Amino acid sequence: MKTFKLLLVAACVASVSGCNSGSSKSTGQKTTPTKSVTPTKVERPAADHTFSNTELEALLTERNQILTSVKMSFEGKSYNQVQYAEELDEGQWVIKLQSSDASTVDLWLSNADDGDCLIYRPSVITDIFKCGESTRTSSDDSTVIQSTTQNRKSNIQVEFQTDALKHISSIGNTELTASNKDNKVTINTTFAFNEFFREILNNDGSKERINATLGVTTYLQMKDITSRFEGSEMILSFSTHIGGSADDDINMYTGLLIKDNKMATHVTRTGSVFSGGTDLFAAGNPRILQKASDTIAIESNKQIGVHSWGNGEKTALDIPFTDVSHRKQATYFNKVLGQQGIDFYIFTLKSAPFNGGHWITQADSDKYNFITVIE
């Protein structure tokens, strides 16, 4: 689902008499009553936002606090970087941590007072340790867990920033893997916790889609790939299911990387995009859909989906188009889709409520020239 940080501005709507109308001083002069003026409703958001390096750096600096918010020491190795995260349930997360030598481990972290936690690495480690209240030392902004694993009897220490933990799943969990053949680079998507879900949660996605999330980690990977393969022909291939973005401010910058590097985007037979994933698909040219089934309409395959957004209190269409969130989105879609970009954005807002979804039809695509190739 799309999320937005809304800029709330206290505006003074001035009439002829001005904003500062509370003065009790009288001039003794006769005044003529004035009619109040109703502001003209803006029917379309303006594409006037400036995407800048300054704004991007501020966003990355803020998100970096989350990427360094969980640390773990285990068997002589320190894991100080958060790679990906997923919220499993309220107060439970799976977090992929990386050490300085690039080795990784999955941490199932529970915030329950009497909870158990788990560390996992495919074919190497599966071990449980107590992580409830009795193992914790807390300060105003951080918590330290000191425990011993049940199987290996190894000491383990986990430290996390309490406030950052609430937002940790916003970093995303979509892994990008680039392969280069004959100067043609294919970037494939993968859910970062495939093995964990299959082996620990007994969920291989066969009964219900496992949807990966986009976030700052997606941008950082895409930036690295485009830097390494600058000048090469590139295609972003959505070969898994992308459920949306947890950080649209960053996600738009990821889309601009796709646009600026003249990438093609491709939803494969095994993949789908929704919400913020569709935003990234929109940034490609050409935009290719490989139908999961050739015998049914494209919307029945549920591969490219859109919806509106909300701020927790209002849905997007209840918020004036002059709002910064609308103008950012309008600017983004204008950049990636050209003249039809703003119309397509308004279509997404009307397509389904923020807690619903609409799968793009052939007619939708034709109207906005959205899917350029269907295979």
UniProtKB/TrEMBL annotation:
Task: Output compositional bias ranges, type Low complexity.
Answer: 17-40
**Region listing for Disordered, in residue ranges:** 17-47
Q: Which UniProt keywords apply?
A: Hydrolase, Signal
Recorded GO MF terms: hydrolase activity
Q: Which domain of life is it from?
A: Bacteria
Signal among the record's keywords?
Answer: yes
What range does the record give for the signal peptide? 1-21
Q: What is this protein called?
A: Alpha/beta hydrolase
